[in-house]
Write a sequence for this structure.
């Protein structure tokens, strides 16, 4: 699935599933009413101008003849048994009736496409998409946090077309499509929507809904559908962190709390917040990464590892700092947090 990189304009693709303001039944009834009204208008026009018509059979034009002539005219059958003979009748047929006939046919074709063909094409497209999505990233919510997460996911190597956005606002999905993502309109707490998004085969689900209650329900639903997928949830209130973790989230981020810490720290510091932002962004001068231990590092102390700077070791739920010399000896199953330079900027 080839798409343009973020930031470049591209033609907005049709949404996979967009709920209409009206049900298919309502749309169909409205269009039937419009067609009946237009046919009645054509019938009225012919009836008013019936003196310009001739019945080739008996020479008399009755109301039933007008109804019959209206039907064969609109359907373009044209048996030729009733014909316009006066100049006025021919002009009326050309200027008034022919446009109405074309408009009625456009309604027929548009309805057939929208209610039958388009839905079939959308269903087929969704089936193909679900088969192609493997190890993709699902982002629930495309507000400021969701958009930033999607942008960073691409910057960190997630292929274009492997980021799927779930959101209840069509305008958010239009913006996501412009950035090259797949959009799915719906409620992220719904099992059906998550299944349509291919949660069974997803690599990770990022929940950025802006509401902690919706986040908890989405975490529970996602974990029910896929016990192994990695779930990262954004939380607003600190008191809800424990609840969301118990619901099954693997990682929890509290943007408002982190932002508050950085703002308070910036009262007395000038560069700390800037350096933290640098660490977190994929295009920063330095990056904070997590990795497994390499065989040649086992038995060494954190300070002895290089060329990057290892700042923390995670071991069996414990967090070990680089200053803890006695405990900072690397073991086989450790996970390392290290700071590395962003070599992609060396030539910039």
């Amino acid at each position: 699935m080839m798409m343009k990189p973020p930031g470049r304009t591209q033609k907005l693709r049709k949404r996979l599933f967009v709920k209409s303001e009206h049900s298919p039944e309502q749309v169909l009834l409205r269009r039937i009413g419009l067609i009946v009204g237009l046919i009645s208008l054509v019938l009225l026009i012919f009836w008013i101008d019936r003196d310009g018509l001739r019945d080739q059979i008996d020479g008399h034009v009755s109301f039933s003849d007008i109804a019959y002539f209206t039907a064969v005219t609109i359907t373009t059958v044209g048996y030729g048994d009733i014909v316009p003979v006066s100049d006025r009748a021919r002009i009326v047929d050309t200027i008034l009736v022919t446009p109405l006939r074309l408009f009625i046919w456009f309604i027929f074709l548009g309805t057939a496409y929208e209610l039958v063909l388009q839905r079939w094409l959308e269903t087929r497209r969704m089936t193909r998409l679900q088969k192609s999505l493997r190890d993709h990233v699902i982002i629930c919510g495309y507000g400021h946090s969701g958009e930033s997460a999607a942008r960073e996911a691409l910057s960190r190597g997630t292929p274009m077309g492997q980021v799927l956005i779930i959101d209840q606002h069509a305008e958010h999905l239009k913006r996501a499509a412009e950035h090259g993502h797949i959009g799915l309109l719906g409620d992220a707490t719904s099992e059906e929507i998550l299944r349509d998004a291919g949660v069974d085969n997803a690599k990770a689900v990022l929940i950025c809904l802006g509401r902690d209650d919706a986040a908890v329900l989405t975490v529970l639903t996602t974990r029910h559908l896929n016990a192994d997928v990695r779930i990262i949830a954004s939380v607003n209130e600190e008191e809800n962190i424990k609840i969301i973790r118990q619901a099954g989230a693997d990682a929890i981020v509290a943007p408002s709390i982190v932002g508050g810490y950085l703002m308070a720290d910036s009262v007395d510091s000038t560069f700390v917040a800037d350096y933290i932002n640098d660490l977190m962004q994929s295009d920063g001068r330095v990056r904070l990464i997590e990795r497994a231990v390499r065989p040649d590092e086992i038995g060494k102390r954190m300070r002895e590892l290089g060329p990057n700077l290892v700042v923390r070791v995670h071991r069996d739920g414990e967090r070990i700092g680089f200053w803890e010399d006695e405990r900072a000896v690397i073991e086989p199953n450790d996970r390392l947090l290290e700071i590395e330079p962003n070599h992609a900027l060396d030539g910039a």
User: Anything to note?
Assistant: The two ends are 30 Å apart (CA to CA). The first helix runs from residue 24 to 48. Residues 1-15 have pLDDT under 50 and may be disordered.
